[in-house]
Sequence to fold (684 residues):
Amino acid sequence: MNVTIKLVGIFQISRFKEAVHEYPSGTRVRDLVDELRISGPLLGIVLINDIHACVEDLLNDGDTVCLLPFIDGG
Amino acid sequence: MKYLTSDPAGEPSSILYSRCTVDFKSGKVQMEDIPCRNLEDVLGGFGRSFQILAERNISQAYCGENPLIVNTGLLTGSSAMTGMRTYFSGYSPVKESKKGLPAAMWSAGSGNFGNKFKWTGLDELVFEGCSPNPVYALIRETAEGPLVELKPADHLLGLSTHDKIMALQKEYDNAHFAAIGQAGEQWENVYFGAVTLSTDNQLKSGTDKMRFAGRGGMGSLMGYKNILALVAQSSDKLKPLTPAVKAVNINVVKGGGAARLQPISRGGGGGTWAAYDVLQVFHAVPVNNFRPQGNDLPEKLFRSQVEQQFHIKSEACHRCGITCHNNVYEMKEDGSPGEFLAKFDYEPLNLLSTNIGIHDAGLATQLIHLSDNYGMDSISLGVTISYLLSYNERHPEQPLLNGATFGDFEKIKELVEQTAQGKLPEIGRGSKRLSESTGETSYAYHVKGLELPAYQPETNPGYAWAIAGGHMSMGTYGLLTREGKSDLESWVHGITQTKLQIVGFDMIGLCKFFDITKGICTQMVVDCLKSELNLDVTAENIAAAVRRAFLRGLALELRQGYEKSEYTLPAEVWERPNPNIKLPNITNPEFFAELQKRIWDIFEPELARL
Fold:
């Protein structure tokens, strides 16, 4: 299945802003996070098709996953 | 502090704090050791000062009976990382109820002043009345204990915050400083003057890298009292790092909630500036007076854009390994840093750039620099200006003041300078008063008279119950955006239980970045208190004390005339819902009305029992 991945802020450094990757069915968000070597403490928000989600959620063909860093304070 | 017990929750009166009261009316300077009434007194900060303020009936901020209370927290001056906080409390010139009564406020800042203050042996300094002449207070350690003296300060009049500090540094070695700027001196027309705190970096480099206790106009209150600066002179008394505190500090830097605030070069998130990128995904970065337009304008202030033109250096408060500061320098041809321009934190950056239509980093550094050096709260300043710009956009035929509009840098800069010089009370007295004078209050972005920080109110109905400003006294600013919570239960629980605990940091002497997600009711804090002070206290004891302190703040608001109807958001939020914000709408009137009911149902019985 094809999944569009959007990375935000620091996650784009040495990676990409947006890309389409192919995965087997049964893939979870965590698999993408691991594959991209995104640090757990830095991962603040997961969106699947613009809806808040979590790293254990299963992905479907055509999904768009957006990974955002944590935000804190001011 | 004098500790005659190791049980601060069970025997608070066996712990005494050292207070000095300077009474300008009688000319007396009185030193006392005061037994703590409860754990809140022991913890310090606003937990103690608000109990003092609650004993006063104050109907206007600028009166002799309104004290300025300067104090520290239990872990200020300790080896615990970030333990550098100083607190300034009093009835606020800027925050007021619709009845016109001033609200109690505190403001906190880091820098090295808090350490030095604590190491003089003093825990609290209370100024009563007003000095007839400009003075600064010298707090120093002596063989007999802390000593407070008043010194003439005519030579400091008219100097910027930074210049005051540099002038005092020439007179005092081994000292740190707190100072107001020209804005605080113009207290009659500037209600949001800030107190500036010196840093080691500033004193060594001679550049204006200061820290601020900005919110609520404590610098203006200081100016009203004719106190231009404080000097804390003492030897350093940092204890050797114990294994327990060392473990905590490592956890703060590497494993705790602050890891993501670390510099990008260390694998961190790069400080608070990173919020720009995240909030922009939801079109929730404030633009043109909190009206995001659904376009890419905020991206011009993304770090990745700015660092193409400027050198960004990650720097830290003294001894702090979090290193959350993003200092912006001119970039030389070889890429090395040139002149220091400004520090980019999310709030001041947004409110003095994107939210007033400025999308140029160089221009933003100029406005931040001006605000810092004149000594103003950048949040109240930025939001009041954005209100004015919004008014002028709506009334092009009859604009206010110099007719500035969004993005008109030269005119906005003129507004900033004239406000600081006391020439524009329309801005200097804050957005509540300005909007009431125009009769157009719906788009004045304050809650309870205090301007909102740079998180859209549509994302944070918790603002309404914040007792000292949005992101510093109600940690719900990420509940929708970050955690995706849009149900009533989560918001009731957040506001009444978990997220109010953020104010614990404004008692104990630690910065919020010590562990912003978990607060101070943790084993890390328990371990620090045991190791540093031999105090046995549980996380549950601390949580209960923080809650009592918060509720006292809420009770104090109600006593100062706030009606329940004032626990609300700017009306534009529901009168003109913004379709560009890509998040569930949790600020519609129905949701908010139910939220209000549920929250007061929980708070009111507890308030009655206080």
